Structures are given as structure tokens and as C-alpha cells.
Amino acid sequence: MLDLFVYGTLQSPALMQAVAGGAIPKPIAATLPEYSLRTLRDYVVPCLVSDPSGCVEGVVFRGLTPDQIARLDLYEGAWGYTLAPTRVDAATPLRDVYVYLPPAQGVAPDGPWSFADWQSEHEKPAVDTAIELFSHDPLPDPELLRQTWHMMESRAWAKHRAVAAPQTRRYAPDPGDVAIHKLRPPVGNFFRMQSMNVSHSTFQGTRTDPLRREVFVGVDAVILLPYDPVRDKVLLVEQVRMGPVIRRDPNPWMLEAVAGMVDARETPEAAGCREATEEAGVTLQHLEPAGSYYPSPGGTTDYFYTYVGLCDLPMTETYLGGLSDEDEDLRLHPMGFDEAMALTTSGEIATGPLFHLLYWLAWHRDRLGQFL
């Protein structure tokens, strides 16, 4: 058994439960002398900084089991945090208390850190990230955890981003109308395949037996069509795609819109502007929403935020784009709107989101010049 002082996000009982598992002891308020708490630059988690006049508030969880400590070691140790004995002050005398200390070469701290602010903005996605991590069997090693953490966080924020859409014609569900009875450990590293047993209410007022289903678990994505309303030109992206490769398409090089994942803590609009710069070297002047949707809700969690991005497209020749450090090998094709529409008819454009954006633009392009 071990007594652990926590000073950051693990003060959250919900996150501590998701990480440590088992029965979580009641926390005891305590303070850690000779340290102060700062926010890690470019992150939302805190860092302990040596400070002879400082004092950090936190809590102690007493009597954690070896299994719980092993889970905490993975969660903290993957980032270089190490378990060390420490001294804390509390109303209840405490001895042999430990704390996770950050690596000496940690990221530079930048400003104070607030548990209340983190809790209001980031707690729920953090809990979902931890739940996904510890749903794996076997658990990843620290290196694999670091490699896949970004995707786990992005999937958690996708759940956090989901909001109720209008239901003027659709069924209005009550809590419990859909029930997941069994989630099996997910398969995959970058993307996931999730198997489950699920039951749901029927339109006849009955309930299905538990049904075994499998779902491809992706992340939210932004898909954006750069458009120059002055020149009536669009910009298409060309790259090889693995779906057509596996389907044995004779030509797996696809024409698409600019696209990319929406990262954790990022808005779809910010992701669209970032991807336009990274993939195509284009600076957007205005983003016009063109609808958000599930491209294939029967078997994937993918959710697309789509936009037409107004910009200046003076280019006349095909050029190369993308980020080499992300293994992107892209060609960018500036072309007139009518030429792009002709490619939807010929079959050379065979990607659904680009179809959607071009036909949306066909309906709306007359009014888009007002935004420039």
C-alpha cells in the first residue's frame, strides 16, 4: 500500500478513478512545501517548480494498491514523471507519502495553473482519454502510449464536441434508449476498431436483444474547399489513399478537398485554417460553413466539419504541398469551377466530401463575393 500526494489533474476524483481503477480512497487535503505550480507551456497540465517560499495545495490518496500504482506509473511515467518520497502538511499526520516529480528537462513553465479552470474546460475529455487508454488489453508500453496519445486525446475531444442536432422529424430518444452491454478491448494503434454488444428501443415500442456490432473509431475532421470568387477558381488536393489501395482500385491517387484531423482543444475553424496553410500554402480570408455530418454512420464515428474557404488563387500551374515531417506527398491543382464540376461527371472525382463541397458551392457561389 502507498500514500500518494497529487497536485494537478489527478485531484479530480473522476480522472483518478479512470486512471487508478479499483476503489479510490477518500482524498485528504494536504500541501506540499517549497514548491510552486506552473502551467507547462503549450499544455494544459501543471508542473512542479522548486520554490523555497512556495506551497502547493493538493490531496493525498492513502493506501493505493500495487495494481493502482502500476497504472499510475504508466500514466505518469510515459512522460518522464518519477515516483519519489516527499513531505506534506495536513490536518491528519501523514508519513511515507510519495509524489510524481516532473523530469528535470521538462517543458518550460508559463504562468500559474488553476485546477478549477482545468476542471471546467478539460476534465471530461481527460477522463475519456484515460478510459480509452485503460480499456486496452494488454496495456501499451510507455513508448506506444506516447505515440498514440495524440489520437486518444483527439477522439476524447470529438466526444466532448458532440452536440444535439435538431430532431423535428427524427425520434427523440430518452436516456437508456440505447444501452451498451459490453465493450471489448479496442484493436489498432492510430485508428481503432471497437466491438460491442448493444441494444436499443425500436419504433414498435419494443427493445432489441443485445446485438454484436463493430465500429471504426476515428476522429473529427475538417474538410475545406479553397475558392477564389474573383477568379471563380478552386484548389484540389491529390494524394494516394489507402482505402482505394486495399479495394484494389486501379488508380488510388484521389482528388480531394483540403482535409485534416481536428486536434484536441482545437476548433474546427482553426483546424481548417491550419490545414489550408500546411497542405496548400493558402491563407484564408473567410470561412463559410457548408454543413457538418457523419459520412458513414453505420460503421464509423467519423464526423466531418466542412467549409468553403475564400482566398486568393492566382496560381495557374499544379504545385507540390504538404508537410514532409508528416509524410504528406501532395499535389495541388488550381482550376476553374466549371472544370472541377466536369470532373464530378467524368468520374475522376470519386470522393464524397469533395462532391458535397462542389455541389454546395454551385448553389452558393453567387453570394460569396460579398465576403471579400
Automatic annotation (TrEMBL):
Pfam families hit by this protein: GGACT, NUDIX
Enzyme Commission number: 3.6.1.13
Nudix hydrolase domain segment(s): 217-357
UniProt cross-references to SUPFAM superfamilies, sorted A to Z: Gamma-glutamyl cyclotransferase-like, Nudix
Catalytic reaction equation(s): ADP-D-ribose + H2O = D-ribose 5-phosphate + AMP + 2 H(+)
Record's keyword terms, sorted: Hydrolase, Magnesium, Metal-binding
Record InterPro entries: AIG2-like_dom, GGCT-like, GGCT-like_sf, NDP_pyrophosphatase, NUDIX_hydrolase-like_dom_sf, NUDIX_hydrolase_dom
Cofactors (names): Mg(2+)
Enzyme class: hydrolase
Keyword Metal-binding in record: yes
Protein's job: Acts on ADP-mannose and ADP-glucose as well as ADP-ribose. Prevents glycogen biosynthesis. The reaction catalyzed by this enzyme is a limiting step of the gluconeogenic process.
Family: Belongs to the Nudix hydrolase family. NudF subfamily.
UniProt name for this protein: ADP-ribose pyrophosphatase
